Each structure stands twice: as C-alpha cells, then as structure tokens.
C-alpha cells in the first residue's frame, strides 16, 4: 500500500516543484473534464495553453490580465505571510476603481489629463483600496473581529455601492439610462506600452510592485518582523515585534495594491465605470498568491498561468462552444492540486506492505 | 395585523437555509475543523438539487442530491485537511471558489427556469387566523431544521457521543490517548456539515426562490459561518441568529416594496453590514470568544506522532 511518511526535514525540491506539479495536475483534470463532456482534449488544451500565446497580440492580452492579478497577488503574498487572511481584495479593487473613476469623472473636461493627473487618479485608487482594507484592520485591531469574514462581507458591500453609483450619481447623462458612466477622455487613459495593443502601463506598475514587495520582504527589517509574526507569533512577541503593526501594514499594503489594480482597470482596458469591473480578479489572486509560494517574484509565474486560464476560458466559448464559467472550475482545481501537492513537501510516499 | 403574517412567514423561510447551514458548521467546528467551503457547498447543493428536481420531477430526490453533493465536497475537504494535513483555511477557500465556478457552469442550462413547489400545511393549525399563515403552512424542512436544532443541542450537551465530539474539538490529543479515533470523528462531523450546507442550498433553489440564478446563495454561506461565532457555538443561539438575519433580509425586501426612498442597492447592503456589526459586537470581548471557541479549531492533528 502507498503510505505517507513524514520527512525528517521539508524538501526544498518539492517546495519548488509543487506548483509546477499542480499546474500539470490541473491540465490533466481539465483533459478528463473535456473528454467527459465529449470535446477533443487536444484541441481543448491548445485553446488553453497554446492559442493564448500564439502571437504578439495574444501575449499583449495575457499582459492585460496579468497586470491586475499580479498587482493584487503581490499584496496578498505579504498579507498571507503575516498570517492575515485578507480575502476581500475583490472589494478593495472595486473601491479603488470607484475612487479613481469618480476623480476622473470630476476633473475630466475633455482636454486635460496627462501624466500628473493620471498619477493623481491612480493614487486615489490606492487610497480607496487602503481605506476599504483599513476598515477590516480597524475592526480586527480594536474589536478582534475575524478579518476573513469582515473583508469578505465588505466585497458584497463594495459591489452594491458600485452598482448604486453607476445607477445614480455617476451615470452618464447622455447614456440613455444605461447603468454606466461616460467614457473617460483619451488624456485620462493609461498610456499603452505596446502600440497597437491594449497592453497598458499597469503591467509595468505590477512588475515594479513585485520587485518592491520582494525587496520589502527580504531586505527590510519591517518585512522580517512581519514574517516572524506570521510563522511564530510567540517568538515575535518575545522579540517585542508588534503584531498590531504587522496587521495594519499587511492590510494597508494589500488593500492599496488591490485599489491600484482597480484604478488601472477602469483607466485602462475598460475606460469608464460599469457595474461589473472585475471578472473575479480579487479572488483569483488568492490562488495566484498561493501557487506563487507567497513569493512576490513567484507570483509573476502564477499570475501568468492564471491569465492563461482566463484567456482560455474566453476562447473556449468561441472555439469549443464551452461556457467561460469553465475558468472558475479550473481555478478551484488548481488550488486543490497545489494544496495536495504541498503535502509532499513535508511527507514522502513509500510503498509498504 | 394582516401584513404581519406574511412577514413572519417569509422571515422563517429566509432564516431556514441560514440555520441549516450554520447548524452543520457548528457541529463541524465543535469537532475542531473549520470549513470555509460553506458558500461553495451551498451553491453546489442548490444547483444539483434544482437540476435533479427538474430531471426527475421529484423534490425529495432534489434534496437528497443536494445533501449528497455537499457531503461529497466535504469528504474531499476532510481527506485534504484531516488526513493530508493541508491548511484548513486555504482548502476551505478552494472549496468555495470551486463551488462558485462549478455551479455557474452546471447551472447554465437552467438559468431563469423556475419550479412550482407543492403547498404544505399542518391540518387544523393552518386554518388559525394569522398564526396559521405565519407558522403552520411551511415546507416540512422548516420544521425539520427546528427539530435538528433541538436534536443537536441534545446530542452535544446530553449524550456521550456528543461529549466525545466536543472532546475531540477541545483537545484531540487527550481524546486520542483515551482511545478515540480523532480522524474518524472529525470526518463524521465534517460530512455532517457538508450535508447540512448542501441541504440548505437545495432549500434555497427548491423552496425559497424557487429558481436557479448564478451565485444565488449571495454570501449566505459566509453569513452562516459568522453565525456560528455569533452564537458562540450554541445551537439555540444559532436559531435566534438565523431568524434575526432572515428578518433583516425580508425587511429590506419589504422596504423596497413599500417604496422607501432609499436605493435598493443600499438596502441590500443591510444583511452584510449587519453581519459585520454583529461580529464586532460579539468578538469585542476576546476572553468570551476564547472561552467558548473549541480550543483546537483549525489545527491539524496527526495521531501518528
């Protein structure tokens, strides 16, 4: 019989291989799923793993998806390392989109815009996300309220708030009553990185965030204290590291980055405020963070994989006649596969009689 | 007075899925395992219950399918967390994310379809003025959930098996050294939790709405999780909390219907904000939570070392 046996020390090799193994396992499950519903599995795998990277245009679309996923996942990696479970990034993203979008709509006169004002709007998004995550931090800090449930409830509140605003205060007066704001003028849209594609400067911001997050965790004393607090709370307390400080830092950083992602989405590919801004980026980023080993550079790899799933899901609608909801299934399977593979970091498989 | 009866009746119906799910999660957590997959299990219970009822034309089979799917998902969760030692929070999240995606996929052919559930009523009592309509014309599962609450209170507080479940949740190593199979007991509790969540989901799509809409559980799985904390892990307090939240939900609908000049979106925020407020009020006293919370909640126990 196959038995699990505890390793004397955790395997570094498996810690590296487990995410790759998980992706393979997910692809395998996907193949079985496609076979089960009577689709050609080879064609299906092509849609998910080859078509999204077939030419420059396709790569640019991947980048459009990587930008928000990576930005959010960097923040969540820091957060989860501090053992603070902020799972409401989706809500912080929406609030960031609202604050940035509202600022643009207020200041936009059709001819202004440009670098300074775009930066201001992006910062408004960051501030919005920080405030929204700050509510969770405050309630956790002052009243000991569970951050998982509070941050999650605030997602629903944020989405309803967005719906309220685009039906009312921020609606396009010339939009025939459609629940959406007017289009932002060109001067307020994020500059393109690759001409002729939708790839915007958000991808650069995301990569900068990843490097900054890595430097923070590995090169700063604050980042060190935060991680000690997550791994060994008692040791952190003995050393006099403040757990309240870590709580606030991790929630504000992750909230701010989610807000930035929201701002970049409305000022980038969307170009206006609509009732649905994100196809679940905030939740997918949780998986991205775990698959990237909670490492700000590792999440670059995993956000790419997640972007493949998103594009593959969109393509499978036209190519395979499969609904794009299939993406959600793959996201769940990927996290399951990772958690199962991670068992092999601390254990090994042995045959025994 | 005439408006009161339908108000009470709909409050009870709205509270029932919350109560069913929260009671299951309560037993689940009393054994020391926290399953954040409740939202996913409820959604999967809702769609499989609905699809089965449409296919077979039988509501009983629908409920059965919902409960089974919840148990199946819980079994997978139990294998990962109780045997393989995977992180309970992360695994539960995965279960919820998977449930949201899979139910959206499975539900596509049923979007917008609705069912006509049969009418029920308790003879004689249902003809009483006001209280007949308010309390005695409900689906059997409404009364079943109340009976379940009493049964769980009795089981946990008055029986030997209930004591063992609580012991496993408080100190698995002590229970283990007394010769109890901690893993098997936790598996049972997690399966029960999954069954209740699946049943609660099926109740939503078969009785409460009764139709299928993507994401129709709308956070009730999470609210049910909050309810167990709110109730400090006591069954009767879960019942009170569930009806309270049912009441809040119904109140927002009625305010909309009566034309209260507040936007529907702002009214719909009420249950979520209420959940946060309630969590804050109850968690404020950290000592009280610590005294009532199962001591090993969320911690992995390996009997082999």
Description:
The complex is a heterodimer of chains A (about 350) and B (about 300). Chain A has about 350 residues and is mainly alpha-helical. Chain A has one domain (about 1-350): ABC transporter involved in vitamin B12 uptake, BtuC (Orthogonal Bundle), CATH 1.10.3470. Helix content of chain A is about 70%, strand content about 5%. Chain A contains 13 helices and 2 strands. In chain A, helix 1 (about 10-35) runs antiparallel to helix 13. By secondary structure, chain B is an all-alpha fold. Chain B has a single domain (about 5-110, about 120-290), classed as Orthogonal Bundle (ABC transporter involved in vitamin B12 uptake, BtuC). Chain B has helices at about 5-30, 40-55, 60-85, 90-105, 130-135, 140-160, 160-170, 170-175, 180-210, 220-230, 235-255, 265-270, 270-285, 285-290. The model of chain B has no long low-confidence stretch (mean pLDDT about 90). Chains A and B meet through helix 6, helix 11 and helix 13 of A and helix 4, helix 10, helix 12 and helix 13 of B.
Offer a quick outline of the entry.
The complex is a heterodimer of chains A (353) and B (305). Chain A is mainly α and 353 residues long.
Keywords:
heterodimer; A: 353 residues; mainly alpha; ABC transporter involved in vitamin B12 uptake, BtuC; two-stranded antiparallel ribbon; 2 strands; 70% helix; 3% strand; globular; B: 305 residues; 14 helices
Largest sheet of chain B: none
What's the order of the H and E elements of chain B?
HHHHHHHHHHHHHH
- Structural class given helices, strands, pairing of chain A? mainly alpha
The CATH architecture of chain B would be Orthogonal Bundle
Distance between the termini of chain A: 6 Å
What would the principal axes of the Cα set say about the shape of chain A?
A: globular
Query: The CATH topology of chain B is what?
Result: ABC transporter involved in vitamin B12 uptake, BtuC
- CATH top level label of chain A: Mainly Alpha
Distance between the termini of chain B: 64 Å
From the helix content, strand content and strand pairing of chain B, which structural class follows?
A: mainly alpha
Q: How much of the sequence of chain A is in beta strands?
A: under 5%
β-sheet strand percentage of chain B: under 5%
How much helix is in the residues of chain B?
over 70%
- Integer tally of domains of chain B: 1
Report the C-alpha radius of gyration of chain B, rounded. Answer: 19 Å
- The average pLDDT of chain A is 92
Contiguous uncertain segments of 5+ residues of chain B: none
State the helix count of chain A: 13
Q: Please count the beta strands of chain B (DSSP E, at least 2 residues each).
A: 0
Oligomer: heterodimer
Order of strands across the widest beta sheet of chain A? 1-2
